[in-house]
Here is the input.
Amino acid sequence: NAEYMGHDLTVESQLLPPTSDARACQRLCKKVAECTHWTLNIDEKKCILKNSAEGRQIVKKNAVSGPKECPSCFEENVDYFHEDLKKIQGITEAQKCLELCKDEEGCKAWTLNKVDNKCILKKGITGKKKSRVSAVSGLRDC
Here is the structure.
């Protein structure tokens, strides 16, 4: 639900094929030297390459944005709380929790509670993060 406003790389963006895949958009960004970030408008299936992270706003419901390179898809010691979609017991690895999220319709993010071995799939994250030593969280499309 984040969009980078402005700083579009117009020539490259106009030549990109329609897509609703955030990873494909990130891969395209990696191929363009000037690209540092990207925004995917899911409704329009449009990947917009950016040369800056300035203008980041959480306003657009059907937008996904990210950097050229993700240092890590997992946020250690972070709990995305609220917006629970489904809880799955017996999960001990963050990668498995991410895979479960990708397989679950409507899942946008996840949190793994390492103490309870519970993967909690999320409908979204509306800026609600909490520091928790026993948790690791991430986004579905990282």
About this structure: The mean pLDDT is 83. Residues 22-31 form the longest helix (10 residues). The first strand starts at residue 3 and ends at 4. Strands lie at 3-4, 37-41, 46-50, 56-57, 63-67, 75-80, 84-89, 109-113, 118-122, 129-139.
